[in-house]
């Protein structure tokens, strides 16, 4: 465990320069940004007459769970809704139709910015937030990262089709998450529509809708004619009321990243959904392993926003790097704290990845010699946008076989950095860049460590290449 002189000074509430002086007297020449080891730090702390307190993780990181809002501070917030269902059953059309019911957009003339989520104001003045990426992949991925932002799932089933594989997957994911469901039977305008058949088929999955005297709300809708739209909104509001969704808006904000990307002009951009508190322009924050400051915010109508209350999705400018979907954004008191938390998380992430990644080339061959069942082919993946990263990970996972598996040591968005190179070097893995290149420092390290680097701009070429490499690792007899 090491700490920079500056961070230690912050924690001791002493001037960093005084620490440097004391260290000098102890025979150590260090600057405020250099790190010192734990023993030296403890010596310094005693020197300054402080008590030594070994910090626990919650002292360094942010412990949101321990920070509970009192009952009186809680106020109603808008429900957050995700639409799931089989491909072509009308998820996107429904999202568009619901967006069209927004009274605010109606007034303003309606410019639509796709930021990954949008909020509508109903005729009755209620607010509803919709996640704009339909399908259960995003939902599941967020959950895997511990982010449960969805309050209500709308299960879309086309009235002219039936329960399809992805419908069933969506049902399972929704049940697993314990999120209440509303069934929207879409394409009700079609003459071959048979909503009753859908209701009956749902029984097989223990979903008993209202029409069948159950307690799951259902509604027949058509994105084409607008049929059932008001009723669907009504049902969302009823469900939301049952859930008593509330949050404290008067506190430092906590938000979840819905999606993130690197914009060539604006830098890292993230769409976040505020869970509690109010996010303000100028706020200093930590998100995942990045720190930053809110430079500007935009809503889904492209308007500049100064303050974002709970459940409002906003696109945030001013992050130090591109976070991951599902990361938590937390506002902190000052920049020193933000940097400290981010640095701590980075260290921890690197330590974890290195510990998990013992697969050097030698290990791989000795594993082969021992005829171990599965060999791992480690890679580090960097891409220009989150969507590509995800597509590449999925594609790579698919080319794994019983004998050799792709192991993604790290993946992310943005230029290839020193930490990527260090990780690749430690694990004997190649770095795969998709529409990205290394920064200057990383390039230096690549040359020094002779780390293999490969660039692609077409996903299937990337997977073909990895597949060939993997076949090479297995040798001719396999
Ligand atoms: P997704 O894959 O679930 O997002 O489905 P889409 O929203 O892209 O819809 C798939 C197809 O069904 C498109 O051709 C739509 O025009 C059509 N569609 C969607 N909703 C309706 C509807 O309510 N009525 C009719 N007639 N067609 C619809």
Automatic annotation (TrEMBL):
Give the function comment from the record. One of the essential components for the initiation of protein synthesis. Protects formylmethionyl-tRNA from spontaneous hydrolysis and promotes its binding to the 30S ribosomal subunits. Also involved in the hydrolysis of GTP during the formation of the 70S ribosomal complex.
Where does this polypeptide localize?
Cytoplasm
Parent-protein start and end of this portion: 287 to 764 of 863
This protein's superkingdom?
Answer: Bacteria
Q: What is this protein called?
A: Translation initiation factor IF-2
- What family does this chain come from, according to its entry? Belongs to the TRAFAC class translation factor GTPase superfamily. Classic translation factor GTPase family. IF-2 subfamily.
Q: Does the keyword Hydrolase apply?
A: no
Keyword set includes Protein biosynthesis: yes
Example GO CC term: the record gives: cytosol
A molecular function (GO) held by this record is: GTP binding
Question: Per UniProt, which keywords does this protein have?
Answer: Cytoplasm, GTP-binding, Initiation factor, Nucleotide-binding, Protein biosynthesis
Q: Where does GTP bind?
A: 85-92, 132-136
Q: Where is the Tr-type G domain positioned along the sequence?
A: 76-246
């Amino acid at each position: 465990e090491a700490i920079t002189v500056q961070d230690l000074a912050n924690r001791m509430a002493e001037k960093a320069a005084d620490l440097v002086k004391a260290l000098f007297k102890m025979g150590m020449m260090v600057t405020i940004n250099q790190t010192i080891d734990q023993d030296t730090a403890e010596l310094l702390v005693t020197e300054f007459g402080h008590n030594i307190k070994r910090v626990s993780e919650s002292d360094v990181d942010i412990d949101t769970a321990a920070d509970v809002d009192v009952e009186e501070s809680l106020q109603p917030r808008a429900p957050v809704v995700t639409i799931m269902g089989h491909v072509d059953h009308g998820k996107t059309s429904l999202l568009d139709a619901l967006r069209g019911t927004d009274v605010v957009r109606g007034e303003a003339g309606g410019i639509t910015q796709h930021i990954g989520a949008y909020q509508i104001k109903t005729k009755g003045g209620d607010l509803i937030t919709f996640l704009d990426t339909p399908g259960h992949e995003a939902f599941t991925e967020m959950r895997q990262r511990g982010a449960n932002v969805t309050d209500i799932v709308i299960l879309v089933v086309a009235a002219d089709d039936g329960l399809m594989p992805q419908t069933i997957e969506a049902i399972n994911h929704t049940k697993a998450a314990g999120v209440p469901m509303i069934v929207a039977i879409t394409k009700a305008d079609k003459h071959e529509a048979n909503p009753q058949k859908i209701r009956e088929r749902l029984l097989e999955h223990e979903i008993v809708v209202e029409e069948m005297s159950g307690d799951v709300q259902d509604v027949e809708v058509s994105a084409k004619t607008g049929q059932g739209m008001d009723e669907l909104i009504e049902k969302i509001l009823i469900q939301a009321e049952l859930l008593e969704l509330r949050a404290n808006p008067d506190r430092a904000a906590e938000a979840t990243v819905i999606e993130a990307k690197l914009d060539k002009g604006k830098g890292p951009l993230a769409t976040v959904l505020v869970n509690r508190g109010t996010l303000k322009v100028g706020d200093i924050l930590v998100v995942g392993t990045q720190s930053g400051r809110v430079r500007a915010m935009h809503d889904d109508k492209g308007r500049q926003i100064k303050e974002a209350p709970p459940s409002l999705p906003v696109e945030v400018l001013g992050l130090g790097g591109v976070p991951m979907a599902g990361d938590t954004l937390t506002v902190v008191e000052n920049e020193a704290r933000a940097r400290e938390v981010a640095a701590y998380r980075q260290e921890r992430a690197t330590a974890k990845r290195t510990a998990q990644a013992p697969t050097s080339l030698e290990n791989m061959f000795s594993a082969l010699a021992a005829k171990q069942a599965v060999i791992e082919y480690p890679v580090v993946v960097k891409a220009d946008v989150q969507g590509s990263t995800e597509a590449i990970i999925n594609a790579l996972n698919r080319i794994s076989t019983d004998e050799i598996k792709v192991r993604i040591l790290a993946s992310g968005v943005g230029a290839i950095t020193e930490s990527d190179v260090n990780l690749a070097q430690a694990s004997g893995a190649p770095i795969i860049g998709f529409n990205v290149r290394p920064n200057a420092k990383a390039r230096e390290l690549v040359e020094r460590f002779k780390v293999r680097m490969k660039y692609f701009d077409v996903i299937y070429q990337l997977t073909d290449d990895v597949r060939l490499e993997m076949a090479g690792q297995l040798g001719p007899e396999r």
